[in-house]
Design the sequence.
């Protein structure tokens, strides 16, 4: 049973159903078949999102169809992780570079080795980002 809310009313338990759409009732039914392994994967994903399996399938299918979500295979997680890491590094390097430019613009000196280190870090991060993007492009091309 749900715990009472702080305002004295009852809190509603999390719904396992999809939200109702303004378009009216959903009368069209589609049968989806899975083998045991596939069903276990889909069921686990639905449970992670605290939804009934059929509700989860409907929501995810609509999100993909409406291009709200672009499906990314589990095998691409490492590549996406690489892109996220490269993005963080580029942000840090950009901050360092801005600090060096600020010192130079105010008449100060920035040691050559520091500028070289920032430049090398920037080149490395850009190279990693390029490799990750090319990998994603290859994978998307194979699916198309």
Sequence:
């Amino acid at each position: 049973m749900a715990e009472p809310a702080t305002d004295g009313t009852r809190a509603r338990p999390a719904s396992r159903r999809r939200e109702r759409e303004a378009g009216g009732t959903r009368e069209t039914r589609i049968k989806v078949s899975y083998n045991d392994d596939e069903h276990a994967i889909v069921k686990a994903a639905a449970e992670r999102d605290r939804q009934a399996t059929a509700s989860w399938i409907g929501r995810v299918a609509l999100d993909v169809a409406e291009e709200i979500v672009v499906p990314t295979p589990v095998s691409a997680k490492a590549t996406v992780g690489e892109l996220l890491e490269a993005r963080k590094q580029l942000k840090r390097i950009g901050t360092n570079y801005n600090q060096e430019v600020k010192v130079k613009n105010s008449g100060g000196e920035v040691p050559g080795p520091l500028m070289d280190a920032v430049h090398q870090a920037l080149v490395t991060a850009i190279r990693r980002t390029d490799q990750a993007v090319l990998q994603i492009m290859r994978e998307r091309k194979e699916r198309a």
Summary: The chain has four helices and no strands. The chain has two domains: 1-71, 74-143.
